[in-house]
Amino acid sequence: MARALQLAAQGKGATAPNPCVGAVLVRDGLIVAEGWHMRHGEPHAEVNCLADAAARGVDPTSCTLYVTLEPCNHFGKTPPCTHAVLAAGIKRVVVGCADPNPRVEGGGADFLRSKGVDVTVGVMEQACKDMIADFAVWQFTPRTYNILKMAATLDGRIASRTCKAAWVSGTQSRAAVHELRTRVDAVVVGGATLRLDNPQLTVRIEGRSIDRQPLAVVVTSLLPEPGSPFTLLTTRPDETIFWTDAANAVSVRAEGLRDKGVRVWELPSIGEKLDLSAGFTMLRQEAGCHTTLCEGGGRLAMSLCRLGLMDEFQYFLAPKILGDEMGIPVFSGEVAESMEQARRLRLAGIAPSGDDLLLTYRPV
Fold it and tell me: How far apart, in whole angstroms, are the C-alpha atoms of residue 357 and residue 355?
């Protein structure tokens, strides 16, 4: 199942709005064939695994199929995977987690059992659920799946008190972020990040041609002048979106930005803050986005956490100590008088990233 999860991860960014799924065939304790869902509309993991078995001359009737997600039992863009499993003569199937889709819940496993197949569900279940966390968001909400990425020192600072632009994480972590950008449809930052860092918010990987760049989204109540020399305005205005309040959305600046090809979207307000949930819903429904990468700063990060819009937190921890209480923290904008008010997360992964440490967290 661990290998099937590795395979499933290779489909990230390409299968949406379908889930990422991996499958392996095992005989006598050895993996003899494998496959994963590579792209939306193409064959599912089980079918690709069986095709790999055929290419290797492996008889699937003597194998156990391990698959991260319950095989589908309905007709979509492809035929049901349960039919392919039965046609292959497989007698035992081990499933990571059940399909969360309420229209098909339990269907695949129950159907296979009704045909005499031995089915086990719930092996490495939490990891398999994490693999399809994006799919669950797409199934049950109208918004995008949102990954928060932050890089900080050991004492939790993302910048010095002067906010002077400087790398916090190492080269390997920065390369990992660009790989992460290849899997998303939009990169979201706050207005302060735009003004202080003048970011490109693009994928830049040496030696690789990038066919499609993610949209750039800036959340701000202070729109820039249309003639400002920000990179987003000078090089990719038609790929840039500003989220702002009602007054700014009808301002002269907003109209000037629209004349350049920039999209300025009015978001409703919750008290004095923008309703970011509405923005992520608009991204999905009006711009066709499924996954976003939110790259800060601290107030935007806290807003995502507070509103329940942070589906995954990629936290790059650098082996540095700033030691300045006026340094800029990872999360900010809340008033908390006791530790009981802290928001809890679940550690879902830990891995070295050069000299840094990459911690993956998810909502409890």
Answer: 7
Average pLDDT, the chain: 95
Catalytic residue positions, numbered: 46
For 74, which DSSP code? S
| Location of structure tokens 């729109």 | 223
Distance CA 309, CA 100 (A): 19
* Dist. CA 352–CA 323, nearest whole Å: 23
Query: How many CA atoms does the CB half-sphere of 56 hold within 13 Å?
Result: 15
Q: What does the pLDDT look like over 233-277, one tens digit per residue?
A: 999 999 999 999 999 999 999 999 999 999 999 999 988 889 999
Residue pair 124/4 in contact (Cβ under 8 Å)? The answer is: no
Strands 215-219 and 22-27: unpaired
DSSP states of 96-165 = EE----TTTTTHHHHHHHHTT-EEEE-TTHHHHHHHTHHHHHHHH-SS-EEEEEEEE-TTSEEE-TT---
φ, ψ of residue 2 to 5 degrees: the values are: -60, -40
**Spatial distance between the Cα atoms of 172 and 358, rounded to a whole number of angstroms:** 11
Under DSSP, the state recorded for 247 is: H
Q: Is 293 helix (H, G, I), strand (E, B) or coil?
A: strand
Amino acid (1-letter code) at residue 164:
K
Contact call for residues 74 and 107 (beta carbons, < 8 A): yes
- Spatial CA neighbour of 18 closest among 67, 84, 65, 76: 76
pLDDT digit string, tens, across residues 322-357: 999 999 999 999 999 999 999 999 999 999 999 999
Other beta carbons less than 10 A from residue 45's beta carbon: 29
